[in-house]
Protein 1
Amino acid sequence: MSEKNKMRIQKYLSSNGVTSRRKAEQMVLDGLIRINRKVAEVGDKVVLGRDKVFVNNQRIIPNQEKKRYIMLNKPRGYITTLQDEKERKCVSDLINEIHERIYPVGRLDRDSEGLLILTNDGEFANRIMHPSKHVKKTYRVTLHSNFTDYHLARLCEGMKIDDYITAPAQVSVVAEEKERVVIEITISEGKNRQIRKMCEVLGLDVARLKRISVGGVKLGRLPIGKWRDLNREEINRLNIRKSKE
């Protein structure tokens, strides 16, 4: 059998819009994936056009649909998932007119808002999320706290959060009023709730957190709760092997 007719199971799952390649690997490790009658192992290959692949005993139909790349302005109060057993509001509620099976690239926590990219292109998603790509993400943060040069320096130089040290960030003050400061923070990591945790370490009260750009692609004036397709220039800007940011 020619190697051209085979595909590693992680790539097969991501290419067919099931999830990102990194998450697919974890699903394989958790024993959730089956190739024909055999529980898949990391590194197993799928024979295209012959093998049947199952996720939680549900067969994956090979993806013949066109690739979609969506930008959503996620509102606060929505969770970054396609379904939720607790019946909370999901981002899928905002894109239910899209027929392709797309999924979020990365996450925004429930209380955060702004730019969220969704796609059914697993390779594209993996290139954005993989830590080695260092794709930059910029957030606008409204603080109900005094903000000093000390806070600015600490955020810029990196700090200990949980069990890791954050990489240096780019920080600028956008607006400053009495008991209200707006800053922009650019990071190249994707740690869980990283911006909120950085502010928490410094005793800063985050009133609003909004992601405004990913990899140089900006949210712009897209209304809250609305989505649009990325244009070709934006797709090319994100579809990188090594970040040039």
Protein 2
Amino acid sequence: MRLVIQCVADYEDAFRRALGAKRSEEAKKELSAKKRTLQKSENRLAELDRLFKRIYEDMVNGKLSEARFQMLSDDYEQEQADLRAKIEMLENEIQNQEDQAENVDRFIRQAKKYLYLEKLTPTILNDMVNAVYVHAPDKSSGHRVQDVTISYNYIGILPANLLYDVMNGKAA
């Protein structure tokens, strides 16, 4: 626990990058680009609805042959399906990116509260840890070894090598 808190305090930017959360400036640029693309896709979807109505009216009025109407309507329907899939994907990406950055920020704030941790109390444990997994003991080496995995609130399980990489400047 101390190692995690110290790593967060001393190497906050590297810790964020290692968890995949970008700095606020980078994240804002990427989010705004995705939101612009999302808005353009939604506008095009609405425009396709209008175009579809127009070609239907043109067909009914005899300005457009039925074969031409069918070809155009098939193209518009395919484009609408593609746009709906793209919109759903973009909405999910935007939500995930916002959630991930927010969760990393929450965890960092929690960790900084306990920067000078002397004793692990139930309150601290409840604030920082989601679950503790105690694995079955391994005696194959002649010594009893038992692994313990900690799942932290907001960010999940942190592999120990990730923390060492962050502290040694090896994390991306």
Protein 3
Amino acid sequence: MKVLVTGVKGQLGYDAVKEFEKRGHTVVGVDVDEMDITDASAVSEVLGKVSPDAVVHCAAWTAVDKAEEFPDKVYEVNALGAKYIAEECKKLGAKMVFVSTDYVFEGTGDKPYGINDERKGLSVYGRTKLAGEDFVTAALDEYYILRITWAFGINGGNFVKTMLRLADSGKSELNVVDDQIGSPTYTRDLASLIGDMIATDKYGVYHATNEGFCSCYEFACEIFRQAGKTVKVNPVTTEEYLKMVPQQAKRPLNSRLDKSALDRAGFKRLPDWRDALSRYLTELDATTK
């Protein structure tokens, strides 16, 4: 199979290329320098030239706070970019994987969101990813939409790296929100699942995160515990944190996702997030030696 992966400079795109190569696929990885997804003609030219069997669309504007300053640009990247790729996949008869987010939901209550629950993004990022989903479903009869949360991988920045950097810079005490609940997602595990998916015709919308739920506070505590770092972590509410660090985008408090669609399709759920974190820290350590 020939697979084109967008956003290869990001966490998931990087791991997806490695995973597909490991499986023996022919992989073409692109980022903005090779294909500007906001340019319909560029998308058409590159996809037409590559003629992939599948496109895994990982490229996105993911700087959630910065997105509030540039809503039009973010819409071009997250919504129109998905539209142009979906339309070209339709022409080519290529499978499409669109990586979406828990931010398409309002994030209230304490029950895991189902794949068909009402979507109501609170932020520019959330609303533009929601629009991207709609463009994909409008253009294609068959697709894979994967909503993920709290991604961390070897290539690029993430919460784990931020916590470790703060600890290594001498921070002995940190305030971390304890009322935002979700599931960390190791992009290496997610890439493996995507590899399994595109080998099938089990199309649909899926929630795909590592197993288990935690707060950002609990996630930080576990990072320091596993990494052997001595840092005092103070639990604070989102409201309290916004007073300390104002002008942030609204984030869902409840990012729990119901992953039963994976079960129904016969896909294996990702390992527990603590296990994923342990393997990630080992991988991270190996890359810094």
Protein 4
Amino acid sequence: MLENRSLSIGDLARRTGLSVSAIRFYEERGLVEPYRTSGGQRRFLRSDIRRLSFVLIAQQMGLSIGEIEQQLKKLPHGRTPTQADWTKISRAMQKMLDIRIMKLSKMRDRLDGCIGCGCLSLKKCKLYNPDDRAASLGAGPQLLIDD
């Protein structure tokens, strides 16, 4: 009965637009978990279409594979996720995206002061760091970035 509702890796590739090798990569990362038939064939649940579609959307939003893995770990194993399951993930992602949007907006607003200022004066440049004074603040352009 499960066999009738399952998909081969080729079928899953056609349904998601992903290559077979990409699906195997996501399988290695634990984002989808196929089972094997008695003949050793890899089979996927239809709900894996949603899981992989989520991966594609999350990547387009700029989430890393690690962040995507963390979200997908919240989904139940052994049953198709419900709308409530997906809603929990959606809310968590909204918070992540709000933080990202805030950081990107701050970076955008500071670009002219950093790259486009044309000051030709190191005295007011945010990247200027005489005697490496900002080293104690951490790695990277610490005078420009503040979390």
